[in-house]
């Protein structure tokens, strides 16, 4: 364990509202954009509101967006999440693109603002440092992409007739025999 993680809060991953079971539930509930209509450091926020806010609202129908003009105060963005957390970001002198990036970042977060050391339910005295093993781990890449059977490798498989194919063949022979016998009876 690294020394810098000794002083972090630790715990298990919590999945709010069984997120991911059945469908994804976005954790951002509400965004409040506060800005001044005339102050210079709110220019990026005003440009975002004029150009990108409607598109953002259409792409994220589960997020309520409030626009709150305030006189002679610095701009800010406040995100409120389903778990009750609030994430506040001062937006003074940010460009329109930076505002868009911060709001998109809020949409994918879950409201946890503190650094958090995740713990596992499984413990072992000898953890693996080699990574996850798969059947394709030590094979050459060209061999992973070949479709079998391959004539170049000399691994042509002799295709035998399957039981289903054999039964279909017998049924077709019986149908032919019954058709010929019916024709003979008519004559």
Structural key phrases:
two-stranded parallel ribbon, 187 residues, 17% strand, alpha/beta, Glutaredoxin, 6 strands, 4-stranded mixed sheet
Characterization of the model:
The chain is of the alpha/beta class. It has a domain at 3-117: Glutaredoxin, CATH 3.40.30. The protein contains 5 helices and 6 strands; from the N terminus they run E-E-H-H-E-E-E-H-E-H-H. The chain has helices at 43-51, 53-59, 96-108, 141-145, 163-186, and strands at 9-11, 28-35, 64-69, 76-81, 86-90, 116-118. The strands form 2 sheets. The chain has a 4-stranded mixed β-sheet, with helices on one face. Strands 1-6 form a two-stranded parallel sheet. Strand 4 (76-81) and strand 5 form a beta hairpin. Helix 1 crosses helix 3 (96-108). The mean pLDDT is 80.
First-to-last CA distance: 93 Å
Across the major sheet, the strand order is: 3-2-4-5
Q: What string gives the helices and strands in order?
A: EEHHEEEHEHH
Classify the fold: give the CATH topology of one domain: Glutaredoxin
Look at the structure and give the CATH class of one domain: Alpha Beta
InterPro entries: Ribosomal_mL43, Ribosomal_mL43/mS25/NADH_DH, Thioredoxin-like_sf
Keywords: Mitochondrion, Ribonucleoprotein, Ribosomal protein
Protein name: Large ribosomal subunit protein mL43
GO biological process, one term: mitochondrial translation
